[in-house]
Every structure is written in C-alpha cells, then in structure tokens.
C-alpha cells in the first residue's frame, strides 16, 4: 500500500475518508498526553489530513514535513491524520525502532476496508510465528537472489522482450509497466503464461487495486470504486480457487503415478506447507502477493524512465553501460544472465536514486502495542505511528543535496541498498526493514534492470504529454507518462 504514504503497497484516500466518516460517527478522538512529541492536531476531527493530502497531491509535499519539524524542533512531531492522533517520525533511529520492534512494541495496522480486500491470510495481515514462516517462505522460494538467478531470470527476460516487441509508436508507460509486472508475477507464482486467463485476471485486479484508494461504502451498493473492488475480488478469488483446486488434483495424480518432475512454484509450496492451509487461505495468500507487486514495480519502472529523461547525462551513462553488456553477448537474442545483472553498477545507482527520490512507499503505519519511551517522550500503547522513509531520504542531514536526483552519489556505495537493518540506524529504507522487509526487494530491482536494458538498447523515446509526479494516494505520474517511442534494434 502506498499513498505514497502507504506502506505495503496499499495506502489511501479511502483511509482518510473512511476514517472521517467513522470518526464523525464514533467521536473517538483521543486525548493528548504531555509525553507525546510536540505538535498540532489541526482542525477538529479532520486534523491535518486535508493539509497533508493537498501537499502530497501538489508534487512538492516537503514543506508539510519541513514546517512542522522546524516549528517543533526535533525529528518527531504529533499530528492528526485519517481520524487518529499520529506520531510522525522523520528520525532514522526511531524508524529503526519501529521496523525492528514489529510484533513486540509495534504492529502493522490497516483499516478493515483494506483487510477485506486483501483477505485474512495475506502476508501483510499475518502476525506472529505464522507471519515469520510465510515471510521466509515467500523470500526463499519465490523472490531470493538464488531463485531469481537459477530459475526466474530467463522468464523475466523473455516476458519483457515479448511485451516491448508489441509496443506501437506511442505508449502510456505506466499501463505497459503494470501489464509487464502483473504477467511476470502470475508466471512466477503460478507458472501461468500470459493469455486469456491472465488478461481476465488482470482486468479484475485493476478494479481491485482501485478500491484501495476509494471510499469504502457498503459493498452491496456496488456504486463506487470500493464496491467494484469487492466484486472484482470475488472474481479474482474464484479464478484463483479454480487454479488451486486443479493444481491440487494434478499433484495428487503426480504423487500416485510418481511423475512429479515440474519446477516447483508458490502454489506447490502452499500445497505442501506443513500448516495444511485450506484452499481459501491459499487463495488469500496468492491474491495479496499479486497485489504487492502490482503498484510498486510498475511505478518504479515509470519513475526510472522519467528521471533518466530529465537527466540526459545519466541516461547516456546507462545506455553506454547497457550497450556494453549487449555487445558482449553472442547475439541480439541472447538473454540477460545473473552475471550481466551484477555488472551494471551505474544502472544500480540510478535505481537506488530513483527509490530514494521517488519514494514509492513513503513510509509505514504502525500501532504501538506497548508504551514506547524515546528521547524523553512516552508514546502510549495503542497510538498510531507513521515512520516516514521519505522524510529521511530527502533530509540534508543524511544525503548531501538531498532533493536533487544524483545517481553518482551511490558510486562505490552500494552496501546501503538492501534495506536491511544493520548496527547503525539505516537512512536508506525504500523496502522497509525488520520482519516485514519487502520480500520482493531483489525481484523488483531485477525486473526494473532488465526492463531498462531492453528499453535503452532498443528504443529512443520522447515525452508525448507534459506530466506531473504526485504522491497521493500513490506515488505515480499523474497521466501515466505517455511517451512516443522509436525502435532502433530488434528484440
Ligand atoms: C520497487 C518495488 C517495491 C518497493 C519499493 C516495495 C516496498 C515495500 C515496503 C516498504 C514494504 C514494507 C511494508 C511494511 O513494513 O509494512 C513492502 C512489503 C511487502 N512487499 Fe514490497 N516493494 C516492492 C516490490 C515488491 C514485489 C515485486 C513484491 C512481490 C511480488 C513485493 C511484495 C511485498 C510483500 C508481500 C510485502 C509484505 C511483507 C510483510 O508484511 O511481511 N514487493 N514492500
């Protein structure tokens, strides 16, 4: 979730509107306690939500945070967002406490409208030991460097080329990136090739994810995006259920006839899991994993192209690097390999810098599950907290000339890129950290790298329509970044 403000790939104005409605009805506004960081809770009920949304829609949200940090001093302030008193953190040390304290002092917290769309057994909603086990399964069996290298990369290469081959003279980049990312995830999770079934699923997925950013009116009304999303979820779940059932039957046959020779995918892992998941639980899990990559990787593909277009000298270097890789291959058709991915240092700098400046996930919401003491403040149990990655990524204290896109800053400094928590407080956390560290962090990077390779070695492009980067409800180019493309080389 991601208003750009959101965490896992979901965020939303729905949070805001739903919160407003429910808060008006329930009048549950919390009282200040003196140990909270300083702040201003804004207008009654609405709090500072409208101010914040206006800032994040403007394309320049920084003054919203800068003004408050400057006014109150320190790196934490208290505000009132989406119907709740919220401690906003622009402090990498505090963000580390939040990420590392998952399950002990903090837990992720989503409104029920989002839980309904995702399903109870989605990874983002799982807690405790089941979450640990399934997070690790997702990472090691679906998205680790080892799996990507040994089995996913050829498929990624093939599918990206297939898509780019079909491009006409003009494309809306975000739409194309969404199509690519969706087809890739379906193939990786369920071994299903693009075709009628994936097109059908993809249509309903678009309706489903639109629901994350809309007002959750009662679903039976089906009048707005939320109602349509609930309907779409039903369709997606039905299709996934058919797939799970047929895979279960096939597995039984293979076991009986001892003919199981296929490469395992996520469906196999779920069918074999020691927890003995029900079919409904497997459907929830798969459905939500597909959502995770649906908003993030496509936004990343679009932003990286936007930043390169705006910075021709960086684009020239990426081209040089990628053309060099292509020239070392035996022919134009030879697929990229892991060793190629590992020898594109400047491209990785561009990806890091796009993650830092673009902030596809602006931060994560959590709720304290115990009183938290920090630098003289006491944040009570049950309080909402927003750990802002964006505020740290764009802070001069941690990055020189922080608000300028400068991929060269990463040269010789790639150790910071994993998003993993280390001894010091990390200042670069585009993929979160701790127990909920994004399991797709390497996969997302590889997909963007392969996409860039074919884009810069085979095409040139120019912007077709003036567009604008916005950060609410998600980080994206407002018009989807329409471009005119010209192909110079076959794929
Ligand atoms: C550039 C791309 C991506 C970015 C910036 C990104 C960012 C993030 C962040 C910040 C979180 C942490 C949320 C939290 O702590 O609450 C997260 C979680 C997650 N991401 Fe990603 N992500 C990306 C791509 C992907 C991909 C490709 C997948 C896989 C299909 C994926 C799957 C997930 C899942 C399942 C979670 C939830 C983990 C949990 O709660 O245990 N992400 N992502």
From TrEMBL:
Keyword terms: Heme, Iron, Membrane, Metal-binding, Monooxygenase, Oxidoreductase, Transmembrane, Transmembrane helix
Cited InterPro entries: Cyt_P450 (IPR001128), Cyt_P450_CS (IPR017972), Cyt_P450_E_grp-I (IPR002401), Cyt_P450_sf (IPR036396)
Transmembrane segments: 6-25
Mode of membrane association: Single-pass membrane protein
Pathway stated in the Swiss-Prot or TrEMBL entry: Plant hormone biosynthesis; brassinosteroid biosynthesis; Hormone biosynthesis
Compartments, record wording: Membrane
Region forming the signal peptide: none
Superkingdom of this protein's organism: Eukaryota
A Pfam match: p450
Major subcellular location class: membrane
Keyword Membrane: yes
Protein name according to UniProt: Cytochrome P450 90A1
Biological source species: Platanthera guangdongensis
């Amino acid at each position: 979730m991601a208003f750009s403000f959101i965490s896992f790939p979901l965020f939303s104005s729905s949070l805001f509107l739903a919160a407003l409605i429910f808060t008006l009805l329930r009048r549950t506004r919390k009282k200040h306690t003196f140990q909270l960081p300083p702040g201003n809770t804004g207008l009654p009920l609405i709090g500072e939500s409208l101010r914040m949304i206006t800032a994040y829609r403007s394309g320049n949200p920084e003054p919203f945070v800068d003004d408050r940090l400057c006014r109150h001093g320190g790196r934490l302030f208290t505000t009132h967002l989406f119907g709740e008193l919220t401690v906003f953190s622009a402090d990498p040390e505090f963000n580390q406490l939040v990420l590392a304290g998952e399950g002990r002092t903090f837990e992720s917290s989503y409104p029920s409208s989002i839980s309904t769309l995702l399903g109870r057994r989605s990874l983002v909603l799982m807690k405790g030991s089941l979450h640990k086990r399934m997070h690790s399964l997702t990472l090691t069996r679906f998205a680790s460097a080892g799996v990507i290298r040994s089995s996913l990369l050829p498929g990624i290469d093939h599918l990206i080329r297939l898509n780019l081959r079909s491009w006409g003279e003009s494309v809306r980049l975000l739409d194309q990136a969404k199509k690519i990312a969706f087809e890739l995830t379906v193939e990786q999770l369920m071994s299903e090739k693009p075709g009628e079934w994936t097109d059908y699923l993809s249509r309903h997925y678009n309706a489903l994810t639109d629901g994350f950013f809309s007002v959750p009116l009662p679903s039976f009304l089906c009048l707005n995006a939320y109602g349509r999303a609930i309907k779409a979820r039903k369709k997606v779940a039905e299709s996934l259920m058919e797939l799970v059932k047929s895979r279960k039957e096939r597995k039984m046959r293979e076991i009986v006839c001892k003919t199981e020779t296929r490469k395992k995918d996520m469906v196999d892992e779920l069918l074999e899991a020691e927890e003995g998941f029900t079919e409904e639980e497997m459907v929830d899990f798969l459905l939500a994993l597909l959502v995770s990559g649906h908003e993030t990787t496509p936004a990343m593909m679009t932003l990286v192209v936007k930043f390169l277009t705006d910075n021709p000298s960086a684009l020239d270097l990426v081209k040089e690097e990628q053309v060099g890789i292509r020239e070392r291959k035996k022919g134009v058709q030879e697929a990229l390999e892991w060793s190629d991915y590992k020898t594109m240092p400047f491209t990785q700098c561009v990806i890091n810098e796009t993650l830092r400046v673009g902030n596809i996930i602006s931060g994560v919401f959590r709720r304290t599950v115990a009183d938290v003491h920090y630098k003289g403040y006491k944040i009570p149990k049950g309080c909402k907290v927003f750990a802002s990655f964006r505020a740290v990524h764009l802070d001069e204290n941690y990055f020189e000339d922080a608000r300028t896109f400068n991929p060269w800053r990463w040269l010789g400094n790639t150790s910071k890129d994993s998003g993993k928590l280390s001894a010091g407080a990390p200042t670069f956390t585009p993929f979160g950290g701790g127990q909920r560290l994004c399991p797709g962090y390497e996969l997302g990077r590889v997909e963007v790298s392969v996409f860039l390779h074919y884009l810069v070695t085979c095409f040139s492009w120019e912007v077709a329509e003036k567009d604008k980067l916005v950060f609410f409800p998600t980080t994206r180019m407002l018009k989807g970044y329409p471009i005119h493309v010209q192909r110079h080389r076959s794929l």
